[in-house]
Design a protein that fits this description.
The structure is a single chain. This protein has helices at about 15-30, 45-50, 65-70, 85-95, 110-120, 145-155, 180-200, 210-215, 235-240, 270-275, 330-335; strands at about 10, 35, 60, 75-80, 100-105, 125-130, 160-165, 205-210, 225, 250-260, 265-270, 290, 300, 305-310, 325, 340-345, 350-355. The chain is α/β, with parallel strands linked by helices. The chain folds into two domains: about 15-230, TIM Barrel; about 235-355, D-serine dehydratase-like domain (Lyase, Ornithine Decarboxylase, Chain A, domain 1, Beta Barrel), CATH 2.40.37. Strands 1, 10, 11, 12, 13, 14, 15, 16 and 17 form a nine-stranded mixed sheet that branches. An eight-stranded parallel sheet has the order 2-9-8-7-6-5-4-3. Helix 3 packs parallel to helix 4 (about 85-95), helix 4 (about 85-95) crosses helix 5 and helix 6 (about 145-155) crosses helix 7 (about 180-200). The radius of gyration is 22 Å and the shape is globular.
């Protein structure tokens, strides 16, 4: 019996538990700390499950609003994002004043000074990880010597505590020679840490990241903790990146076929407001998600409330009113579009689950 309207995101708890157990086992085996990124699930229930599986020393967030929510699950938070504006800094300082041990990732003296000012005004201290660009070219100081300069600056500022180094090797998802690229990342980190040591600076934490590189972190001996996010649910990016199988995808969007008026095509009742418009990071021509019941189908176009599906390759056509399930290309923004999801605890056991940090974008 259909108990909920579509489109709706359904999370299979058994798959979640299996994904969490795998990651917890890996970090324990290799002596790493785990600080999972909550941007994927934005859920207190899921954050607590990550902590309860072991290996996790705290949580990672991207925004101050997420930190406000996730502080209810853990007092150990890392903000892996260069927040600069005063309203956000006041939020973060208030969290620290209420007992949250808050670390932040920074890549500029400007940001360090802004955090130091907010910390002094609130009478708190922020831990800082210097963000070093190791190849993704999004944020991060460009060289080990620049990392040393910023580390010295941080260490000289009252209200800040230099805790270590942040790396984001997200570019390795597409590496042609993974071992060679990993060696390059390790060399940058090692050079940076040697410069710090020569200057009397200590990096107690070297925080690496991303689901695509999580299970090869043992090849980066400089790294002490990892910040994967997507692994809890997985998506078509991780499937096509050869990081998991379809059975490891815990999150699937239930949709209904609402039109077959155009020849060779059906339309589903979820569009860009359900899936987002993210393309597959590994296969740009793969469409906007994987239709589980019709793997030969291809979602070729999204508008706000419609997903147009080319069914030319299907042995049989989906029928009007038929309920289907789609694995999104990128699950993180998809979750952020949902106020609640359906948690599947058994074959006929579904309960609503609130997404508490949904739309916490500042």
């Amino acid at each position: 019996m259909e108990t909920f309207a579509t489109p709706a995101l359904v999370i299979d708890l058994a798959v979640v538990e299996r994904n969490l157990a795998r990651m917890a086992g890996y970090v324990k085996q290799h002596g790493l700390s785990l600080r999972p990124h909550t941007k994927t699930h934005k859920s207190l229930f899921m954050a607590r499950r990550q902590l309860e599986h072991g290996g996790a020393t705290g949580l990672t967030v991207a925004k101050a609003g997420e930190a406000e929510v996730m502080a209810q699950a853990s007092p150990e938070l890392y903000l892996a994002y260069p927040a600069l504006d005063r309203p956000r800094l006041r939020k973060l300082a208030d969290l620290a004043r209420r007992g949250v041990n808050l670390r932040v990732g920074l890549d500029s003296a400007f940001a360090a000074d802004a955090f130091a000012e907010a910390a002094r005004a609130a009478g708190v201290t922020f831990g800082v990880l210097v963000d070093l660009d190791v190849g993704y070219h999004r944020t991060g100081v460009p060289t080990p010597h620049a990392a040393l300069e910023l580390a010295r600056h941080v260490a000289s500022r009252r209200g800040l505590r230099l805790d270590g180094l942040m790396l984001y090797p997200g570019h390795l998802m597409h590496a042609q020679d993974l071992d060679k690229e990993l060696a390059a990342v390790q060399a940058l980190a090692a050079e940076t840490l040697a410069l710090w040591k020569q200057s009397g600076l200590e990096a107690r934490v070297v925080s690496g990241g991303s689901t695509p590189t999580a299970f090869v972190t043992h090849k980066l001996p400089a790294v002490t903790e990892i910040r994967p996010g997507t692994y809890i649910y997985n998506d078509m990016n991780t499937v096509d990146g050869k990081l998991c199988g379809l059975d490891d995808c815990a999150a699937r969007v239930a949709v209904t076929v609402i039109s077959n008026a155009v020849a060779g095509k059906v339309v589903l009742d979820g569009g860009s407001k359900t899936f987002t418009s993210d393309r597959n990071a590994c296969r740009a021509d793969a469409g906007f998600g994987h239709v589980v019941e019709y793997p030969e189908a291809k979602i070729v176009r999204l508008s706000e409330e419609h997903a147009e599906v080319d069914i030319a390759g299907c042995a049989r056509a989906p029928q009007l009113g038929e309920r289907l399930h789609v694995i999104p290309n990128h699950i993180c923004p998809c979750v952020n579009l949902q106020e609640q999801v359906w948690l599947k605890r058994g074959p006929d056991d579904l309960v609503p689950l609130e997404i508490e940090a949904r739309a916490r974008l500042s």
